[in-house]
Structures are given as C-alpha cells and as structure tokens.
C-alpha cells in the first residue's frame, strides 16, 4: 500500500505534460485578451482623441497653372485724393510765332481840314471848312474846334499860307495858348508858317487855331491854288481809362 501513492504520483508527472501539449494544440488563447477563455472581461470604451501633431514642413512649389479666363469688370471705384505735385519737367523748345491778331477795339480819332475863306478874323477860332478827313466827326467845322472823345496823346500840326501881311498864330488848348508861330511877310511874295506839337488830352478838352493879336497880324490866306491846313490825330489812348 506504501508503493501505491508513489505509483500514482509518477503517473501524474508523466501524463501532465502530454495533457498540457494536447490542450495547447486544441485551444489557442487570443493574445490581445489577457487570460483568454477563462478571465476575459467586457470590451473597454474608445479612448479620447489625442492632441494634433505639429505642422509639417512646406512642400515644394507645384507647376504654374494655365492662365484663367478674364473676369467681369468691376464697378468704378471712388476718386482718390489729389496727389502731391511732381517736380517741374525740363523746359521745352520755343514754339512757332503765332499769327498777328486783331485788336478787340481799335481807338481812332483823326482829322485833316483846310481853309476856304481869306483873312479869318483874329482872336477867335479859325474855322477850317474844307474837309480832307473827319470820319469820326471829332472836328466841328461850325466852331473850328477839335473835341477830344478818347483820352490819350495826340499830335497836331498846321501849315498856313501867308500873304499881304504878317502872321502871328497860336494853337489853343482849353482857352490857353500852347504854341505861337510868327511869320513876317515879304512884299511880292507868298510865305508859309507852320508848327506842330504833342499834347495829352482828357475827354472833353478842345483844341483849335486862332490869329493872335491885332488886325495887322492877320495874313493867313487861302485860294484855289494855295491852302492853309490844320490836322491832328490820336497817337495812343489811355488804356487805364478805356
């Protein structure tokens, strides 16, 4: 009886490896599940999302794409602010001379008259009634006076035939003698007396000729072959007035 336990123990040692090998061949536990087939629990919940990874390095530029179609024109934008003036450019070449223009208004005042009567009376304006030019009618044949209508600078001149006696004549402006001319008559001869002057006149001023002094100084003469003349014209007007 003492040998029976020993026999059973030996048999157990011999049979155990064989049974273990057979069991290993029949059932292979899932390596993902600990203690497979005998201690496997319920599946767990999915874990939380992990943190985003860091940005990767920029890749290489791709090939240039084809040109796209022209888009629709957009609305006109608001006008921008005026910019700062630029620097002056280089000076250009002189241009071609322009054509001479006409004055907007031409100032005209002129007269030229002659004597028709012999020996005009002294100390009154000599009335020259023969008209050579008086287009503006600034010389009055009825009074023998020139009336200034355009302020400015005027030129006056006279050329008188002297016959039978001496002549002393003067040119007046506004009742004041401006110049005098004296010619002494020579017997059996026809002489000439003349004078000229530049005067500045204001509108309304009058200019005339008259024999100065007594009757014996009145040799002014005119006939069909001898003339005594008086003339005047505007040189230039006062533009600051007109």
Automatic annotation (TrEMBL):
This is ADIPO protein. The lineage of its organism: Eukaryota, Metazoa, Chordata, Craniata, Vertebrata. Keywords: Collagen, Hydroxylation, Secreted, Signal. It is found in: Secreted. Residues 1-24 form the signal peptide. InterPro entries: C1q_dom, Collagen, Collagen/C1q_domain, Tumour_necrosis_fac-like_dom. The keyword Secreted applies. Coiled coil: none annotated. Residues 46-99 are annotated as: Disordered. GO terms for cellular component: collagen trimer; extracellular region. The keyword Signal applies. Residues 54-70 have a biased composition (Basic and acidic residues). It comes from the Eukaryota. Residues 104-241 form the C1q domain. It comes from Centropus unirufus. SMART domains: C1Q (SM00110). PROSITE patterns: C1Q.
